[in-house]
Amino acid sequence: MDRRPRSFYLLAAFFALFLLFLYGPTFTIAILSFQGPEGGLTFPMRGVSLHWFRDLFEQQAVGDIWGSFGRSFTLGLMVMVTTVIVSVMGGLAFRKRFAGSGVLFYMVVTSLVIPSILVSLGVGLIFSQSGLDVHWATSGFGAQLTWTLPFGLLIMFAVFNRFDKSYEEAARDQGATAWQTIRHVVLPIIAPSLIGVALFGFTLSYDEFARTLLTAGSHNTLPLEIYGMTTNVTTPVIFALGTLTTAFSLAVIGVFLATVWTMNRRRARQGSDAGQGMV
C-alpha cells in the first residue's frame, strides 16, 4: 500500500513542471528545426526533413555563421586555459592568509553581481578611451574573464580547503622541490576539479552574450550572430542552428565527463595494482 503523503505528489508535479519549463524551449526548437522545405517558424509543422540543416552548410544570404562559430570556439579555448591557470594560482595563493586577501576575494566575487551589460560597457569604454581596438580577442576576452574567473576561483578555494597537506609534506620529505610537488602531487590529485573548471570556462564563454555585446567589435561571436539573425531570418534555419549548437555543447560536456571517468578508472586501477603489490 502506497503511504506516500500528498505533498510528495505535489512536489513531484511541481518538479515535472519545472523540467518542462527548463527544457521545453530547447525541445521545441529541436522539433521545429526538422520542418519540411515549406515549413515556417511556428507549429503546425509542414513536413519533416533535414532541409534546414543542409541549408546551414550552404552559402548564407545573411550572417556569418561559421566565422562566428570559429571566433566563439577560439575565444572559449582562450578563456578556458586562462581560467584554469589563474584559478589554480589563486587557489594556491589563498591557502595562506596575506595582507588584503579578504578585500581581493570580495573584489573577485563582486563581478558576479554586477550587471553583465555594465561590465561590457565598462570594458569597451576602457579599451576605446585608451586608444586600443575593441576586438573579440582582446576586450571580449577580458570581459568574459570577469565572468569565468570567479567561478573557477570559488571551485579551487573549495578544493584546496579540503586538500590534505600531508601529501605535499611526504613529497618534500622525499626531496621534491616546490615545483615538483605541485607538478607530480598536487596537480594529479586535483585534476578532476581542473577539468570542471575548464568546462565552466569554456561553456560560460561559448554562450556568453551580455559581456560580449559591447566588447566584440565589428566581428560577432556566435551568440551575437544568432541574436542578429533573429531580426532578419524568417526560416527554420535559425532553429537548425540552435539545435546544432546545443548538440555541440552537449558533446563538449560529454567529452569532459568521459575524461573525468577515464581518469578515475585509471586512478582506481593504479590503486588496486599498488595494493596487490604490497600484498
Plain-language structure description:
It is a single chain. The protein is mainly alpha-helical and 279 residues long. It folds into two domains: 1-62 and 234-245, no CATH class; 64-232, MetI-like (MetI-like fold), CATH 1.10.3720.10. 72% of the residues lie in helices and 0% in strands. It has eleven helices and no strands. The protein has helices at residues 6-32, 51-56, 65-93, 101-110, 116-129, 139-161, 166-173, 178-206, 210-213, 222-229, 237-278. Helix 5 crosses helix 6. The longest helix is centred in the last third of the chain and has 42 residues, at 237-278. The radius of gyration is 24 Å and the shape is globular. The mean pLDDT is 86.
Topology, please?
Elements: H1 6-32, H2 51-56, H3 65-93, H4 101-110, H5 116-129, H6 139-161, H7 166-173, H8 178-206, H9 210-213, H10 222-229, H11 237-278
Helix pairs in contact: 1-11, 3-6, 3-8, 3-10, 5-6, 6-8, 7-8, 8-11
Could you list some keywords that capture this structure?
single chain, 279 residues, mainly alpha, MetI-like fold, 2 domains, 11 helices, 72% helix
Summarize the structure.
With 279 residues, the chain is mainly α.
